[in-house]
């Protein structure tokens, strides 16, 4: 059944259909990632979150490096290997990538709405007395 633009109710149906398709297209474009987002920004979020999740290994490696001084290359191999294994396990996890990607898309959408970068939005405003 074709919509007749001369009939008012058909115009509204046509408009509603166009708006629905427009929302679908915009959501598709919102999910599109540029090269720099895929290869730089999302991996940056992944590194930060992986360090948080591998907190114990990071602490062990940091402590070993501080205690060993110049010989840390030789003395901290075990801690370094444990840290690498933990980080690589997170980097190779597709679910973890998707989680970080969705976090990035949410931040990007918020920036596009407000125009305020995430760092500034998260900073606390100074209080006056």
Automatic annotation (TrEMBL):
<dbReference type="GO" id="GO:0005739">
    <property type="term" value="C:mitochondrion"/>
</dbReference>
<protein>
    <recommendedName>
        <fullName>COX assembly mitochondrial protein</fullName>
    </recommendedName>
</protein>
<comment type="similarity">
    <text>Belongs to the CMC family.</text>
</comment>
<keyword id="KW-1015">Disulfide bond</keyword>
<dbReference type="InterPro" id="IPR013892">
    <property type="entry name" value="Cyt_c_biogenesis_Cmc1-like"/>
</dbReference>
<dbReference type="Pfam" id="PF08583">
    <property type="entry name" value="Cmc1"/>
</dbReference>
<keyword id="KW-0496">Mitochondrion</keyword>
């Amino acid at each position: 059944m074709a919509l007749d633009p001369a009939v008012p109710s058909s115009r509204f149906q046509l408009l509603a259909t166009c708006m629905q398709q427009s929302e679908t297209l915009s959501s598709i474009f919102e999910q599109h990632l540029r090269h720099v987002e895929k290869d730089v920004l999302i991996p940056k979020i992944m590194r930060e979150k992986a360090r948080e999740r591998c907190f114990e290994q990071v602490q062990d490696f940091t402590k070993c490096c501080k205690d060993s001084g110049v010989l840390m290359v030789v003395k901290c191999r075990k801690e370094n290997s444990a840290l690498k294994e933990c980080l690589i396990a997170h980097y190779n996890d597709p679910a973890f990538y998707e989680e970080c990607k969705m976090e990035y898309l949410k931040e990007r959408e918020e920036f596009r709405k407000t125009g305020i970068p995430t760092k500034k939005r998260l900073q606390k405003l100074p209080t006056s007395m």
